[in-house]
Design brief:
The complex is a heterodimer of chains A (about 325) and B (about 260). Chain A is mainly alpha-helical and about 325 residues long. Chain A has one domain. Chain A is built from 15 helices and no strands. In chain A, helix 1 runs antiparallel to helix 10, helix 3 packs parallel to helix 5 and helix 11 packs parallel to helix 13. The two termini of chain A are about 35 Å apart. Chain B has about 260 residues and is an alpha/beta fold. Chain B has 2 domains: about 100 residues; about 150 residues, OB fold (Dihydrolipoamide Acetyltransferase, E2P), CATH 2.40.50. Chain B contains 7 helices and 10 strands. In chain B, strand 4 and strand 5 form a beta hairpin. The radius of gyration of chain B is 25 Å and the shape is elongated. Classes of the chains: A mainly alpha (about 325), B alpha/beta (about 260).
């Protein structure tokens, strides 16, 4: 059997299923972002968090427990959070932790791994996912903002509009982003109109990358012979890193990926753990989505760093495979 | 009215209209059954309606006046020019429409082979949503116990179920496939169903082996109704489910082609 066999109807079927599964989450993220944009006063978020940056990062990493959102939606939401004055490090902690540190993910992981040390898998996934997110956020805190965020996002940060010389930015969207708040208190109708425009703009921004990422994922999961990775299962290092690569290519939603990971019975426990931690942080669709917020160079470094860090952490835990 | 302003208003409206329309199209008439787990269906309905509402808002009130007066809109370079806007719109719309019109209601042989057919329940990890060992109700048709492929797989691992079905006449429905591995005497094929965790992209084929006196003149992946005697041999360290076929006939696909 060839390793690659393209079939348009199968590709289309898989592509549509990913889109139909993901669009409600994208739209939810866009609507939340629109509501944040219009109804949450600037810097309100910063007042909620502790003044100390480190404490703020640790707390933000837990916000997914209260505001659970999948990885696609979290990118949209933090773009708005940043524009509302949330510190970059706290936003990064929330973005990376929320797809893993959430009650939905905990329940689905536990259910999927019934009979395969479910309690251990669920606990380790949430704890390591949280620590990795916080660790990355603390590193981001020490970086220059210009080396992390795109110029478009930077120009929308509070206090940067005047410096940039203009207040309205468009992102990638074909839809116009509504202008900044009117000095005169707008009517409720006008504010809801702004929510609609903002949500539309954000949704179309993200949908563009989601379409591309979904197409890559659909191509992989229909055209590529997946038995090719099975021989890797017998070597812990190869198994761990190949499962992380596989998670990136499959681009599954974090609330359901455990059901897929659990089926790789030939693979060690820690390789599946690596799959479950790395997948929600870096996958093909996220790679494109992150481009809405982060610089390309930062995305490459983030992806490579997470790949190595999570792989090495999981490899240090191979005693669990015994 | 400048071209940019027209595009700002109508491109998002048309894009949202197409996306919303396709979501609602799939929601109605059980079309989602083969694409998504039922847990996700309400989200598709709500999203479809919301996208149409947003399309209407953009058509009626999109591209606000303040945008038109912005002399130097910034952002991604692709979306600034007319050509860029049209390209972005094309990427949002064309793949969706191509997929919509070129899809079939299920996967073909190459994808099923690429994913690998699961022949023992241990590799499945979890039972389908409606699978309940404690309340198992035996349905009979013309003297045969009506089972699904997944029932046979679980029976191979569950001694009490195995006892219920071993050596008894059983009937299953699924898609016919060649068997190349667990086929020592060359007289086996398999009957498969797709088992979905959340969407078709993650669906995995699961199969029960069937043993035939002679190979039927039925194309691969045809839906078949197979009747025969259930056996559970241990081969290569795995306990497999095998149906010794008495009859095999082509049948219409079930209402829900996927197992959840």
């Amino acid at each position: 059997m060839d390793w690659f066999t393209f079939n348009l109807p199968d590709f289309s079927f898989s592509f549509l299923s990913i889109l139909l599964e993901g669009v409600p989450f994208l739209l939810l993220g866009a609507v939340i972002a629109g509501l944040v944009d219009v109804f949450v006063p600037a810097r309100w978020l910063t007042r909620l968090l502790p003044g100390n940056a480190t404490s703020s990062v640790f707390l933000s990493g837990l916000l997914g427990l209260v505001f659970p959102i999948c990885e696609c939606g979290s990118v949209i939401v933090i773009r708005r959070f940043l524009a509302k004055g949330l510190p970059l490090s706290a936003a990064t902690a929330y973005m990376l932790a929320a797809p893993i540190v959430s009650p939905v993910v905990a329940l689905s992981t536990y259910a999927a791994f019934r009979g395969q040390n479910a309690g251990m898998m669920t606990s380790l996934r949430l704890i390591i996912g949280y620590l990795v997110a916080v660790g990355v956020a603390l590193i981001v805190h020490r970086l220059r903002i210009g080396s992390v965020l795109t110029p478009e996002v930077i120009s929308r940060l509070p206090g940067r509009e005047q410096k940039a010389g203009r207040g309205r930015k468009r992102g990638l969207s074909i839809a116009a982003i509504p202008g900044e708040e009117n000095p005169a208190e707008p009517s409720l109708g006008a504010r809801w109109l702004r929510v609609a425009r903002s949500a539309t703009s954000d949704f179309l921004d993200v949908a563009f990358f989601f379409v591309i990422g979904s197409a890559v994922a659909a191509l992989f999961n229909t055209a590529v012979d997946q038995s090719l990775i099975l021989p890797l299962a017998s070597n812990a290092t190869l198994a761990t890193f190949s499962m992380m690569g596989f998670a990136s290519l499959l681009a599954l939603c974090s609330s359901t990926d455990a059901f897929i990971a659990a089926t790789f019975v030939a693979f060690p426990f820690t390789a599946k753990l690596a799959f479950l931690i790395f997948g929600p942080l870096v996958d093909v669709k996220l790679f494109f989505l992150y481009g809405l917020v982060f610089r390309r160079r930062f995305i490459f470094l983030l992806s490579g760093g997470l790949f190595l860090a999570i792989g090495l952490i999981c490899l240090r835990m191979t005693f669990l495979d015994a | 009215m400048p071209v940019t302003r027209v595009l700002d208003r109508w491109l998002p409206a048309v894009t949202l209209l197409i996306w919303g329309g396709i979501l609602l199209y799939f929601y109605q008439g059980n079309r989602l059954a083969s694409l998504l787990h039922p847990n996700f269906w309400p989200g598709v309905l709500i999203s479809g309606v919301l996208l149409l509402v947003l399309a209407a808002v953009m058509a009626l009130r999109g591209g606000g006046e303040e945008e038109a007066s912005d002399p130097d809109p910034c952002g991604h370079s692709m979306a600034r020019s007319t050509g860029g806007k049209l390209t972005v719109s094309a990427i949002l719309i064309v793949p969706l429409l191509v997929a919509f019109y070129s899809r079939e209601d299920g996967f073909g042989l190459s994808t099923i082979q690429n994913r690998g057919v699961v022949l023992d329940a241990g590799a499945m990890n979890r039972a389908p949503d409606n699978f309940d060992l404690s309340g198992y109700n035996v349905e009979m048709e013309e003297g045969n116990i009506v089972l699904s492929v997944v029932d046979l797989l679980y029976a191979a691992q569950e001694p009490s179920l195995r006892g219920d079905f071993e050596g008894k006449p059983v009937q299953i429905i699924g898609q016919l496939m060649q068997e190349t591995e667990a086929n020592p005497r060359g007289n086996r094929m398999k009957v498969i169903r797709m088992f979905m965790a959340c969407c078709a992209a993650d669906a995995r084929p699961i199969g029960a082996l069937i043993e035939l006196a002679r190979k039927p003149e039925i194309p691969e992946l045809s839906w078949v109704k197979v009747r025969g005697i259930a056996r559970f041999p241990t081969e290569g360290g795995r306990m497999l489910s095998v149906l010794e076929v008495s009859t095999i006939e082509v049948t219409p696909p079930p209402d829900e082609t996927m197992l959840y």
